[in-house]
Amino acid sequence: MPPTEPRPEPPVPEGEIDIVLALSGLRAADAEDALRTLAAHLLDEGSVAEGFSAALLERERSYPTGLPTPLPTAIPHADPEFVHRPGLAIATLAEPVGFGEMGGGTDEDGQVRRLPVRLIAMPLLTDARAHLRALQHLMAVLRDEAQVTRLLDAADDTDLAGRASRLLAGEEDA
């Protein structure tokens, strides 16, 4: 009997986004290590297809996702064809790792500027339009130093998932 592909879960109602993975205090040598770790967890859980990790890394090399927010964050993603379960994977890093700055910011040597990222918010989208409001709200959260600090202060994976869910739902006290 041939292996079956995981069935996609029903879409989340418009404007909402599920937390499909939360990792608190992830230890990573660099951005690629962090992304490979997240991708491996997502693949193990059936949230993404084979090839997601390679596509994610290639996209990050071509189009860096580090945001120069008050507390630098990264929003890496891959094409929808690799996503089985839409939502958001989120990770706090034990130590900052350098992500290239989105938009091609360069340093004085012409190299892509690296930002010391401690929070990764990875949208897993099958249709960005269906989650437009949630993505807009996510960007507002990432620009708010106090809200990002709440996420960074999460005690463990469960606490991080709960805090992220509450912040994305618009609850003030996450």
TrEMBL record:
UniProt xrefs under Pfam families: PTS_EIIA_2
Record's keyword terms, sorted: Sugar transport, Transport
Q: Which SUPFAM superfamilies does the record cross-reference, listed alphabetically?
A: Phoshotransferase/anion transport protein
Where are the annotated coiled coils located? Answer: none
Which PROSITE patterns is this protein grouped with? PTS_EIIA_TYPE_2
- The domain of life is Bacteria
The identity of this protein, by name, is PTS sugar transporter subunit IIA
Give the lineage: Bacteria, Bacillati, Actinomycetota, Actinomycetes, Micrococcales
